[in-house]
TrEMBL record:
InterPro entries (alphabetical): BON_dom (IPR007055), CBS_dom (IPR000644), CBS_dom_sf (IPR046342), Diverse_CBS-Domain (IPR051257), UCP036990_CBS_BON (IPR017080)
UniProt cross-references to PANTHER family, sorted A to Z: CBS DOMAIN-CONTAINING PROTEIN CBSX3, MITOCHONDRIAL (PTHR43080), REGULATORY PROTEIN (PTHR43080:SF26)
Gene3D superfamilies to which the protein is assigned, alphabetical: 3.30.1340.30, CBS-domain
Full protein name: CBS domain-containing protein
Keywords in alphabetical order: CBS domain
Pfam families (UniProt xref): BON, CBS
Chain ranges of the BON domain: 157-224
Record domain CBS: where: 7-65, 94-151
Top-rank taxon, per record: Bacteria
Amino acid sequence: MRTHQIMARKLITVKADTPIVEAAKLMLESHISGLPVVDDAGRLLGIVSESDFMRRSEIGTQGPRIRWLDFLMGAEKAAVDFVREHGRKVSAIMTRDNLFTATEDMPLEELVRLMERQNIKRLPVVRGDLLVGIVTRADLLRAVASLARDVPDPTADDDHLRRRVIASIEKNEWQPIGLGVTVREGIVYLSGMITDEAHRQAAIVAAENVSGVKLVRDHLYLFDSASGLTFRSPKDESRTQTG
């Protein structure tokens, strides 16, 4: 399997001049922990994640000033820290150096090794310098990667079916957040995050109604604001397409 077969293509992004407050609000509303930063042409400039908001003057968590350490490290580090703690735009806190990315044709096993080795939760997918997708770290990622050694790549028909399933789901307001669709031999695997069980059933039905779908396997996460992220029990996780 390749990266393009599991990556999310409908992206939530921000610009470098987006106010930090707006970026934080967008992440909370979308239930995501990181945002790619792009320019007007869609070129990837950096990424901003939850950890970038930890040392901020608004909440009194800026790092303590240690004068002898500032003396040893020089004024440059103190200036950089000040910008990260007090800057008002995403450009002040985003990661732009040592930014790891994947390509669309990167094997899934290689992608997982990169995420594990660098301890990163999300990996932007680029075509040249253009952002075309993103892969986020989830419990299922390792399982899918382990299967990839023994399962052949999806056929051209599977790729065509995947595009139709995505189009069938994405046009609706209840579409899962970070929708992932994988198809092998007509079997559809749905992943992503939902905020209501009714959205799960709607996504399954939408996939079932795509001609050519043999089976739908549900791996959607339910986000509950009170208890956090929970994974649905594997029982009744698949439904056969009878039409």
